[in-house]
Design brief:
The structure is a single chain. The chain has eight helices and twelve strands. The chain has a five-stranded parallel beta sheet with strand order 2-1-3-4-5, with helices on both faces. Strands 6-7-8-9 form a four-stranded antiparallel beta sheet, with no helix packed on it. A three-stranded antiparallel beta sheet has the order 10-12-11. It has two domains: 4-128, Rossmann fold (3-Layer(aba) Sandwich); 133-228, Orthogonal Bundle (Arc Repressor Mutant, subunit A). The protein starts with a strand and ends with a strand. It has helices at residues 12-24, 35-44, 61-69, 86-94, 107-129, 159-170, 178-186, 194-208; strands at residues 4-8, 28-32, 49-53, 77-81, 99-102, 133-136, 139-142, 147-150, 153-156, 175-177, 218-221, 225-228. The protein is elongated and about 60 Å long. It is an alpha/beta fold and 230 residues long. Helix 6 (159-170) crosses helix 7.
Length: 230
């Protein structure tokens, strides 16, 4: 699975230069020229890292970072900024950044910092994948055996149900985009419709919710994806 980076930079030449060099390193890069465009990509796709310019017309990089952190507290964010004082760096870290690089910067240093943040992101995903058992409400799931105990009795999950459930659990309290579900659950070998994924969520509600009509755990977020609330 290739590493995906969201690059947000309003200066065209710099954006294209960074994008090209990241791609030469083997990364898949989605480039955005402003915060509005970037946030749309963030909601629709999965990324391992966000490289974010601070000073942009309209919504600033700091504001975008705070907005992203409301939905995802784990994805690493690397700020790029012409402002490089200690105060500016502190503002970036307080806004949710993991690293801060002042312009003009050395391209090799940028690539080194990207590599460190990407490894951190991937290691976090591997640790989550080690979770084999999970309790929520009155339910218990064993992801190794794909068995579940619910208030309605024992259930044998299908492989795809188990993979989708673990993805939602790993991302608990966060919106998981359809793009990420396609990649991690369906593997892009099949392209299910929105209704197909909705049917899986409906099945989870039937299995695990006390009242499927008023779900506590499994939610559909219109136009974006799905969320498991613990």
């Amino acid at each position: 699975m290739r590493t995906r980076i969201l690059l947000v930079e309003d200066e065209t030449t710099l954006r294209e230069t960074i994008k090209l060099n990241l791609e030469l390193e083997g990364y898949v890069v989605r480039a955005a020229a402003n915060a509005t465009e970037a946030f749309q990509y963030f909601q629709e796709e999965r990324f391992n890292l966000i490289i974010l310019d601070v000073m942009m017309p309209g919504m600033s990089g700091l504001d975008l970072s705070e907005r992203i952190r409301l939905e995802n507290r784990e994805i690493p964010i690397l700020f790029l900024s012409a402002k490089g004082t200690a105060e500016d760096r502190v503002k970036g870290l307080k806004a949710g950044g993991n690293d801060y690089l002042a312009k003009p910067f050395n391209l090799e240093e940028l690539l080194l910092r990207v590599g460190i943040l990407v490894r951190t992101s991937l290691q976090g995903q591997e640790k989550k994948a080690e979770i084999h058992e999970f309790h929520f409400g009155s339910n218990f799931v064993n992801f190794q055996t794909m068995e579940a105990q619910t208030s309605n009795g024992p259930i044998q999950l299908t492989k795809r149900e188990s993979r989708l459930l673990q993805l939602l659990v790993d991302k608990k309290n966060q919106v998981v985009s359809r793009e990420e579900i396609l990649e991690k659950v369906w593997g892009y070998d099949v392209f299910p419709s929105t209704r197909t994924i909705d049917n899986f969520i409906l099945s989870f509600r039937k299995y695990f919710e006390e009242n499927p009509r008023e779900p506590q755990f499994f939610h559909s977020v219109r136009g974006v994806g799905y969320r498991f609330n613990e």
